[in-house]
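user: can you give me the structure for this one chain? tokens are fine.
assistant: on it. calling the predictor now.
[tool input]
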Amino acid sequence: MNQTIDINCDVGEGLENEAELMPYISSCSIACGAHAGDEETIINTIQLALQHKVKVGAHPSFPDRENFGRKVLEMPLSELKQSLEAQIMLVKTYADRLGAPLNHIKAHGALYNLSANDRETAEALIEVVKNTANEAFLYVPYGSFLESLANQIGLKTKVEAFADRNYNPDLTLVSRSDQNAVITDPNLVVKHLLNMVLDNRVISIDGVGVKMKAQTYCIHGDNPSAISILKKVSKKLEENGIKIV
């Protein structure tokens, strides 16, 4: 089997574990200062990504450092778009300056979940990506509103799945308020990921297999077992003839 996949991590979020993560991933989504990060972390992370030949993306969110971008903010769409444009341009400016093409945009946290199913938020995010990084991919959830709307206007997309998050049978992510939301056991993450990669399905929290086909798979940089997970994932993918690119 000569299969290739993209493994991505959310980085620049203050954990300072990027140097350990980079050897095992192929793309990274850098916090843009709204939920975490600042100019220094953005620059340092881009430099690390370049050293490891990892593709660089921007990881914009609701402007809410207090809740780490994991709470939906009630704000006018015009203000949200203005914030998102500034966030993406901050990362893009440094990426251009350092010689790292901006590969993708991936919304963070509550913005990611809301844009998957809310038309106005999805349209706002798509408009921002068109205005700031039209050549970049937009990472989108499988079967989401965001995916279909982006495809309708010809925006480049990559479907994303989460290797270290449990799914409900309707393919929504199990809420982080649930103790089973995040998978921290490296062996369970590998099993979860291989089901998605090899069988194009995800085993939901209820044990039901649901069709899902993705091109990029996320392992969260703030997962307490992130490094162990990535090492095991890298080894198991190689054993199955799957290359991370």
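assistant: here you go. The domain at 3-244 is CATH 3.20.20.370 (TIM Barrel). The beta strands are 3-11, 27-31, 55-59, 102-105, 137-141, 157-162, 201-203, 209-211, 216-218, 242-244.
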